[in-house]
Write a structure and sequence with these properties.
- There is one protein chain.
- It is built from 1 helix and 15 strands, in the order ββββββββββββββαβ.
- Strands 1, 2, 3, 4, 7, 8, 12, 13, 14 and 15 form a 10-stranded mixed beta sheet that branches.
- β2 and β3 form a beta hairpin.
């Protein structure tokens, strides 16, 4: 492990010597992640991108990409673009990245089942803002808004998310 790794433990996320409360999937931590199970996949995940809402916050990092109206993320195993960012209109099941609520105002993308997705192995495993303390996600890692905004500009090229 390196000092720039994010470590998810049963009680918190550790990064750069700090501890942050976090939430994870309602299906728990899984060694056998499947689409729709609500679980967070255990293991070492590279951080491969950062998305943000430019209408709601300043660019958090020089490599962050704006979320535009109509941006979506495919979660449909029958979609040739499964587990990829897509644009509306999109005929397959997907998640809105341009949500009305603040959950996806800042999103850190992991390499879970990406870029060559195995159908049904799970999609859209992100680090994003939580709804509230103790409220689980659909498989992502959730953080307080202020903590997520502190972490985002400090991520480095080799930062990994390690879910124990």
């Amino acid at each position: 492990m390196t000092p720039f790794d994010m470590i998810v433990t049963p009680t918190h996320l550790r990064f750069l010597g700090r501890r942050f409360p976090c939430t994870w999937g309602k299906g728990g931590i899984s060694d056998h992640k499947k689409e729709g199970d609500g679980a967070t996949p255990r293991g070492q995940h590279r951080l491969v991108g950062m998305l943000y809402r430019p209408d709601r916050l300043a660019k958090p990092s020089d490599w962050a990409v704006p979320i535009r109206p109509g941006d979506r993320w495919s979660d449909d195993v029958t979609d040739p673009s499964y587990n990829m960012m897509v644009r509306a209109p999109h005929d397959f099941s997907h998640e809105r990245l341009d949500r009305a609520d603040p959950l996806y105002d800042l999103v850190i993308l992991t390499d879970w089942n990406w870029p060559y997705a195995v159908k049904g192995r799970g999609s859209a495993i992100f680090i994003h803002q939580w709804r509230r303390a103790g409220y689980p996600t659909e498989g992502c890692i959730g953080l307080r808004r202020a903590d997520l905004h502190w972490i985002a500009p400090r991520i480095r090229h080799r930062t990994r998310l390690i879910v124990l």
